[in-house]
Amino acid sequence: MRRRLIPLALPLALAGLVLAGCAVTAQPTGTAQPTGTAQSTAASSVETIADVDSTIPEAAAELLAANADGTVVRDDEWSAADAATVTLGGTTATSDSAGVSVDGSTVTITAAGVYRLTGTLDGQVVVEAPDDAQVVLVLDGADIENVSGSAIQVVTADDVAIHLAAGSTNTVTAASSADAEASAAIYADSDLTVSGSGSLTVADTGNDGISATDDLAIIAGTITVEAADDALRGKDSLVVEDATLTLTAGGDALKSDQEEDAAQGYVWIAGGTIDATAADDGIDAWTDALITGGTVSLATEDDGIHSETALAIAGGDVTISRSYEAIESADIRIAGGAIRLTSSDDGVNASGNATSASGMGGGGMQDSGETVTISGGTLVVDAGGDGLDSNGTIEMTGGDVTVLGPTSQNNGALDSNGGIAVTAGTLVAIGSTGMAESPQESSAQGWLAATVSGSAGSTIQIQDADGTLLAEYTATKAFESVVFSSSDITEGESYTVSVDGTSTAVTAGVATAGGMGGGMGGRR
């Protein structure tokens, strides 16, 4: 049964979303369907973005509303009591079900229904069911290995679920090829859901770990994936609702790459625990990358989180411990959560807008329309390049941001082409002086900038004219510049910035001399 893919932890009010002015139907939950029958989609009333639950910040809710429905098979849609048993026996298998055929070491599921797989198979499990079929594979102590292709392959079906039986340990091992029709250890030419409280270890020495050509939903389970290329890939969408994931990828760890539909190609982390190591990106979305919950730890050689269109973090706990650029998109929205970013180059990079002029890809000093918007959450950036970087604008209306910026002079803790506006929240940017940039003079909230130097371990204190301590920070690397904004700062008033007891007087709203920040920044 096709249902709006809504994490159980989120209110059902979120189900009433619309797709950019087009009607998107939402499905009721809680009604089990007869196993093995074709499922239909029943339309419900269409609601608008205004009906989205208020606990999800608008920055993310707006993107969710523009995305197409995902598909999920809930555990209440089928019954384990109806399961037909398939006993795997080395190079063959046995089953009494008319929906199962065995040809040597190949087990083929040909009908809708629930199938319990147990034992060891040196071969392949194939699902080749009617186009409207819902097939559930219950892995209950199953060990499936194929040395010459995918181990589980869905050729035809509507919706397929892999359920990890309670208390079970399961392994799926393959050597799929990038140019093969089925290029993953678990490959589905359909929608695919992974659920259950058991464990699953997936390894593919040739290509992807788990891949679906439609929607891939991970809603439960303890899952370990080691893949030569991408660990988890849902072409139309990839959603993690609740699971414990340990991912090691030679390519991207979590990926969605539907390029032909602007409402698909998204990755949504709504819950669960993710620990991912990737040779490319941690999360790679063709359209939107969204995090609204869960705990996410990423260590990558390229981007921590990358999306072509928009990237929103509105909840959860996100740590990117290693990356080239930590998060990158044309439209970056930080609206909640606890976020820690470490990068060898830019920490937050808004770039790649299609409106970029002169073939420069958004580079140079021209405002090419990209945006970084911070409205909530706690963000700590430790960057070897620019800390917060936008080829367009940076706007802060809330939250708590600490930027531990570069030591090199060709980058800045803050860098924009279109200007930095601060309305509310707390911002501190500690870095080098060569490209230092301050908020715009027109920013509604006061700010100050100081040319002061120190080293790793130095204590930075900010005091008002009466000597009241407003903020204190400990540097993690050498620095020469400090920019600070909070509700305690009033433009035109005097403040003191001290480093290890050595004080420098500054006037709020006056930028330091000699900086080369983005075009619309504060006075130099």
Describe this structure in words.
- The chain is mainly β and 524 residues long.
- The chain is 2% helix and 48% strand.
- It is built from 1 helix and 41 strands.
- The strands form 3 sheets. A 14-stranded parallel β-barrel has the order 7-9-12-15-18-21-24-27-25-22-19-16-13-10.
- It is elongated, with a radius of gyration of 26 Å.
- It starts with 57 loop residues before the first helix and ends in a 17-residue tail after the last strand.
Helices and strands in order:
Blueprint lengths: L57 H9 L17 E7 L2 E3 L4 E4 L2 E4 L3 E10 L1 E5 L5 E13 L5 E5 L2 E6 L4 E6 L9 E5 L2 E6 L2 E6 L3 E5 L2 E4 L3 E6 L4 E3 L2 E4 L3 E6 L4 E3 L9 E4 L3 E6 L4 E3 L2 E4 L3 E6 L4 E3 L2 E13 L4 E3 L1 E13 L4 E3 L20 E13 L4 E3 L2 E12 L9 E3 L3 E12 L15 E8 L4 E6 L4 E6 L4 E7 L8 E6 L2 E6 L17
Helical fraction equals under 10%
Largest sheet: 14 strands, parallel, barrel
Spatial separation of the terminal alpha carbons:
61 Å
Structural class: mainly beta
Instruction: Using the alpha-carbon principal axes, give the shape.
Output: elongated
Give the DSSP E fraction (strand runs of 2 or more residues).
over 45%
Spatial arrangement of strands, main beta sheet: 7-9-12-15-18-21-24-27-25-22-19-16-13-10
Number of helices: 1
Taking all Cα atoms into account, the compactness measure Rg is 26 Å
How many E-type strands? 41
